[in-house]
Every structure is written in structure tokens, then in C-alpha cells.
Amino acid sequence: MEKPADWLELRPEGLFVKPGGFFVDPLRPVARAVITHGHADHARPGHGEVIATPETLAIMRQRLGEGAGARQRPLPYGEEVDLGLVRLRLVPAGHVLGSAQVVLEHGGCRVVCSGDYKRRPDPTCAPFEPVTCDLFITEATFALPVFRHPDPADEIARLLHSVELFPARCHVVGTYALGKAQRLIALLREAGWERPLFLHGALLPLCELYEAHGVALGDLRPATAGEKGKPRRDLAGEIVLAPPGAIADRWARRLPEPVVAMASGWMRVRQRAKQRGVELPLVISDHADWDELLSTIREVQAPEVWVTHGREEALVHAAAGMGVRARALALVGYEEEER
């Protein structure tokens, strides 16, 4: 059996699969790229051929336009394709719509590149599917023991309680446009919020894309600004979702006495919430927390783990304590999102 280190290579462009002639989530334009999901730090423009799930390709087309790839090759979950000497398939990662783990088989060895993933239930995307393997390449966004995410239903309950307490104020929630916004909407619907939800214009196109792929989100309305200098009094008692940058912008000043909230795993860190002027931090993440990272490593039963995209050192140390060979990839170029 060939060792993964013999056929996986770190290059300036990113992780290169030598016997297949392709990169996984490359940082720079390449001839052939396999993309795990549509977030901008993984799905970059300018590649020749792009292989991804149909949903991810749709997201890339919407966000990148002509930069989404000269040739797009959809690969639905579970289907297999041979690229050079490598057999490739994509399985759900549970991160956002269309997100996938990349399963590579070559020389009697199986490698799983997880991309970004979460383990909590999410009605807006397919759930994470653990795959036993010889090498597991895992993210480490929240790979510190301090990050133990609460039940998202409890965080939504806190938001709805605040709405009840302050009926004359608008609640504006900062949320990432892809994945987090749609999940928040679904969580609010599950919690019984049947009224319209108001969205900043930057969030609407991806919500429409989700609905086109069968994800029902209910009554969504644009939270257009009111008359210059005057707040929209009709939004009192309502919930508005907006990109994180918008909640500190002049746009938000036209909302009636807004209660500023933010939905992110980083809201576990009080200083971050304070710096952003967040009155109601909601710890809701689309990534695995510390305990879930460790349980996933156990579940996939890989004797070797490579760690990237976050707090590599702590997870490498913890994996070694579990008897797993572990190393940090330290890939550069990934951006921190409001996760």
C-alpha cells in the first residue's frame, strides 16, 4: 500500500494529488480543481476545470460568474469518477448546501479531505457522513477546548425571548450569506416563527438559490432602507438578517432602535462580541466544535490525521494523545469568516 505522503504534495497553489493531476480547494488558479464547497476561501475563481457537487457549482456560478471555471463537471454525492490513477467520490460534509468531503483512493489507500464540516443537524444541507480511511485531513477552526457549542435551539430561544422583551425594537442579526443565513431561517421556522423574516439585499440571492434546490425558507422580504434619515417603524418587533459588515453600517441606523445580534461560533469569545458592538451574541456555528472534532477523528478510525485551517497545534497534540499520527499542514490563504 502506498503511503499518502508519497502521492499528496503541498504546493504554493495548495494540496496537489499527484497521480490524479488535480488540486483540492486550491488557493490559486489551476488547470483542474476539486472544490469542497462554495465559501470564498475554498471556491476561488480562475480555474480551468472545476469538479464539485451540482449545488456547489451553482453557488460558484452565482458568486463568481465567469470566474467560476472554464469547464464545470458536476459530481453528485456518492458517484465515482477516475481522475488519472485516483478514484474520486464526494460525500456530504454537513457544512452548507452542497458541501462535500473528498474521498480519494489510490494504491490501496483511502484519503478523506474533509473540507469544512459540522456534526449538528441542519435541515438546509445533507448531514456529515463519516468515512473510514487511512488518512483524514481535518479542519481545525474551533480546535480549542474552550469552543463547545451550545444547542442552537437554545440560542434561537434566547433571540425570540429578546424579541418578546423589546417589542418596540428591531432585532438585526449579523450572519454570513452562505449557509449561516439559511440555517438561521430554518432554525427560526422550527422554533415557531411563522412571521416574515426581513433580509438585507445581499442575503436574498443565495436564499433564492437554496429554495431553487428544494430548501423551503418561508416568507422572506427585503429589508430595504426607509426614507433617508428616518427609521422603518414597520420593522419594530421584527427580525432582520444582514451581513456582519452591515450591522455597523449606516444601513442599520435606519432600523428602529436595533438590538444588534451576531450568529457565529466566535461569539463564545466575549471580547469579540464586545469589539463588534454585539448586544446579543448567538453561539451558532457551521463548524465542528472541540468535542466533535475529537469524536470525528475517532469515528473515521484513521491512523493518521493532517490538520489544517485553524488551531492546528492543539488538535495535533490531542490526536497524538489518542494514538493517532498527526501533523499540521499550515496551509496559508484561508480567511476567517463569521462562522
UniProtKB/TrEMBL annotation:
The top EC class is: hydrolase
Q: What is its EC number?
A: 3.1.-.-
Q: What is this protein called?
A: Ligase-associated DNA damage response exonuclease
Which PANTHER family does the UniProt record give? BLL1145 PROTEIN, CLEAVAGE AND POLYADENYLATION SPECIFICITY FACTOR FAMILY MEMBER
One GO MF term: ligase activity
Record carries keyword Ligase: yes
- Lineage: superkingdom: Bacteria
Q: Which UniProt keywords apply?
A: Exonuclease, Hydrolase, Ligase, Nuclease
Q: Which NCBIfam families does this UniProt record tie to the protein?
A: Xnuc_lig_assoc
Q: Does the keyword Phosphoprotein apply?
A: no
Q: Which InterPro entries match?
A: MBL (IPR050698), RibonucZ/Hydroxyglut_hydro (IPR036866), Xnuc_lig_assoc (IPR026360)
